[in-house]
Amino acid sequence: xxxxxxxxxxxxxxxMSEVAHALIRSLNDDDVGIPEIRDLISQDxxxxxxxxxxxxxxxxxxxxxxxxxxxxxxxVGMQKVRTLALGACLSESxxxxxxxxxxxxxxxxxxxxxxxxxxxxxxGMDGQEAWLTGMMLRLGELLIVQAEPxxxxxxxxxxxxxxxxxxxxxxxxxxxxxxxxxxLARRWNFPPQIVQALxxxxxxxxxHGFSRLAGVLHLAGLMAxxxxxxxxxxxxxxxxxxxxxxxxxxxxHAKFPAQxxxxxxxxx
Length: 268
Known about the structure:
This protein is mainly alpha-helical.
């Protein structure tokens, strides 16, 4: 038994609804259409109501209100609706951890998702896939704390320099949150590119290859943890990852997004 397998023997896996599992399976299905996604989401009335509220958020800037799933999918886009649905399912699948600031945890997760999408779109990658993967990155920390409740104080202690949480997790349990989330994603049958990116998120530039999505996650995770950040945070990012992604520094400064523009599914 590997060390990671042994770790998972010590935790209770969070449960996801059948609707969520079907949405995950649909990520690998290029032939899935609007009727299938609509019928799938409509099986969960609470999720349907959340998505309608999301579709009517000011961030989408729609010319009229959205009153049905068909309208939401047509006006917002099937990929975005499907990804938002999965994000909402993820935020409900994990219990409240005593001592963890749940609001701050999900705020950081949403910021990571938003920055991941921004970078991915700028690189011509799948923005919705990057959004979902960024949303998932910190989930491994919740499993670490479940296995080692006493680790939370050490992982979250101040000062909380961006990226230091990954180092603390690796020192305490032998794995980063991304590596643990990667194994969770594998067990939940997420697409292999998401599993790989999560596994390499803390160290994306390796002699064994470079995952662009892992590089995006790495930078997004650092930016999400930087307090009161503006475009100046770009100058603090690791140059090797920026170079490997071939990101344009002028573009990043000019197009840097404000966190308040990110959709917050956890508030619904």
